[in-house]
Amino acid sequence: MVLVLNGVLQEDCPSDSRALYLNHPVYRETAGQLLSVPNKVIGPVGLLYVLQRELAATIPHDKNVNILGSDDVTNCLIVVVRHSGSGAVALAHLDGSGTDEAICNMIQRVQELALGYPEGRIELQLVGGFTDAHSYSEDIFFSVMSSFHKHPVEIDLTLACLGELNTTIRGGIPWPIIYGIGINIKTGEIFPATFPDKGPDQALRFARHLTGIPQVFNNVKNGFVPYPDF
Fold this sequence. Notes:
With 230 residues, the chain is an alpha/beta fold. It has one domain: CATH 3.30.1330.200. The protein has helices spanning 17-23, 26-35, 99-113, 136-149, 202-210, and strands spanning 3-5, 8-9, 40-41, 47-49, 55-58, 67-70, 77-83, 89-94, 122-128, 155-162, 167-170, 173-176, 181-184, 190-194. The strands form three sheets. Strands 2-1-10-9-7-8-5 form a seven-stranded mixed β-sheet, sandwiched between helices. β9 (122-128), α4 (136-149) and β10 (155-162) form a beta-alpha-beta unit.
């Protein structure tokens, strides 16, 4: 019982995003605020970009990084874990593979980066996914929420912009509204974003998916996302 929704410790995690919004309407309001923010196009300078099935973490005084971000999200979910006292933050682009390990790594890395800052809480923001015909997005949402709920650290959900709230209808077909976000690591501000430059070695990074490797690739130090050898 370590997942905190709207300031209340939960015995069970929501079964889907509809249950979350029904029982905790405050998340509708915060999602609406994010949806009202204009999309920004972010260039490569000061950007640490996270591809699908990757995660990265950094701190506000990182000399090389100003923005942490990811896009090209449809069914997937962008997960942000941030320590409110230190500003240490981790971002992952999750597709349902390696979820438990990725979330443990995110929390552990943020805790390590927040050492020396006794004040603060671990906050969680979720963005992405939509009302797709096969409910893939809802499956990923439940998997992510379940992983956080069983973790021994208290996690405070502060933003959930997904599912029906992140869905628009065009030509009778549902589409996501937000496809990507950036986070200003100095201020913690989250905003809709697209990233024309997605960092080095994209082909190599995507090739991991073809090998069947389920793990979400983890960073080993601030501002560096390593790639495996083949």
